[in-house]
Amino acid sequence: MSVEHTAGAREQINEATRSVVSEFLAARVAGDTGRLIELFADEVDWRLAENPAVPWIRPRSTGAECAAQFTELMEHTVPEDARASVDTFLVDGADAVLMGHVSGTVRATGRSFEGPFALRLTVEDSRITRHHLYENSLSIAEACTPAG
């Protein structure tokens, strides 16, 4: 196998990953839960730090459960205050890493949260098989806790 052929195959994998992740981002922005279910694999390696104070953070493993996270987030936060920006979008084969900033307001408390995030996604056979999110969980937990 030539180096050119290997590099071309690698670039095809990179583009396929970038395309699925871009579709994932577009579906999140549009609130298209049906499309999110299609994009997630049947079984997903989901990682998000446990945070009992935050109602939308819980263990998930199926594509439908993972897609439902967006709906639950919107039920518990003020949509008009939700902000997310992606500053970095790296792709290496089947893996993608997004880094940026997220902020919002919790509906029940009126308190805000903000902070950086990093999201690692893995795409296999055009579906997301890994979703590991790292975020400012302390800020989010504080926003979910009524002021006392």
SSE string, helices as H and strands as E:
HHEHEEEEH
Q: Considering DSSP H and I runs of 4 or more, what fraction of the residues is helical?
A: 25-40%
> What is the C-alpha radius of gyration, as a whole number of Å?
17 Å
Q: Based on helices, strands and strand pairing, what is the structural class?
A: alpha+beta
- Sheet-strand content, in percent, reads 35-45%
For the biggest β-sheet, the strand order reads: 1-5-4-3-2
- Give the distance, in angstroms, between the N- and C-terminal Cα atoms: 66 Å
Form type: elongated
* Nearest-integer average pLDDT: 92
Strand segment tally: 5
**Main sheet: strands, sense, barrel:** 5 strands, mixed
Tally of separate helices = 4
Which residues form runs of ≥5 with pLDDT under 50? Answer: none
Structural descriptors:
148 residues; elongated; alpha+beta; 39% helix
In words, what does this structure look like?
This protein has 148 residues and is of the alpha+beta class. Helices cover 39% and strands 35% of the residues. It has helices at residues 3-30, 33-39, 63-76, 137-144, and strands spanning 40-48, 83-92, 95-105, 112-124, 127-135. A five-stranded mixed sheet has the order 1-5-4-3-2. α1 (3-30) runs antiparallel to α2 (33-39) and α2 (33-39) runs antiparallel to α3. The protein starts with a helix and ends with a helix. The model has no long low-confidence stretch (mean pLDDT 92).
